From TrEMBL:
Pfam families: DDE_3, FMN_red. This is NADPH-dependent fmn reductase. The lineage of its organism: Eukaryota, Metazoa, Spiralia, Lophotrochozoa, Mollusca. It comes from the Eukaryota. Residues 197-293 form the NADPH-dependent FMN reductase-like domain.
Amino acid sequence: MTFAVSNVGGLIYHELTEGGMTGQRFNEFIGTVCRLYHPLNACFVIDNAPAHRQAVNLPLPQDFSVRYLPPYSPFLNICESAFALWKGNIKDSVAEVRDQLLREDHQQRMATLGQLAEKGTAVVTLHRMQAALGRQAYLPACFGLDDILIPSGAQIPPSRKSHTLWTDYIYKNQSFPSFSDPVELKFPLLEKAIHHYSDRSAIPDWMLQCEAKVKAADAFLVVSAEYNHSIPPALSNMMDHFGGSLFAYKPSGIVVYSPGIYGGMRAAMQLRAFLSELGTLSVSNIFGIPEVHKALDEGGAPLNDHMEKGANTLLNQLDWMTLAMKNHRDKHGVPK
């Protein structure tokens, strides 16, 4: 399968062929895209696979150009994100028709796999490609082979290490996360919520910055401990600084943990009601992590299968609801 993806059109063209990619095939693919989308004023960003190296010599229309990624940088190629989504869908689809495939002869099996491959391209959506490209703010610097440096003395805060698992899985689902941690942000005890300010110029900068995060979000993943069999006050205090209209018509997912065997489920039951009153309805799955000290290492890496399976189940539900609710908001708005 060969993809042409864009942050403007998502998957704009694809070809399914049998056998490996050759320079001639790839050049013909580039030529087809040019014919379909001329005039577009576009740039082909291509990695350094051997079959791709001759594309720079193609007689392209004036409105098209070619740029090659630096060596050994597949993380800069949004096609890699597209392929990861597509391959994941294919694996799930093949598992569903495994018995059928075993009964079919070679010709029938290839036809079935071809149908699954074509159907699988539906997961390469515009929203996901925009999210993948949004994580590449450093792409221009990479084209220039500039150094990308971490400022001297910069450290990852210890509390941020607990986010490692979630960033890994969220990025696989082609989302673009930002974090709000009451341990790091040090929200004061709530005295005046942001929607109670009649003069917005009087709102503290830190509150405006957090408001912008909430407003820009399409979904919320709430990761919570259990405190006195309830929601930790620091968490509810942080979220209560912002009105329900900022959370409304966006889904949420609940992750809870505790050192005991119930995995924070008592807090999860109260988070259900709390989040629904804010307007961000939680998906049906709750990811509970019992005995959290046995589930994650000090760097945030999972130590058992439950961590991976539970995270995937929750995030798949949240991803589906996020796309569905975003599409509906964009098309129909929200109730007045």
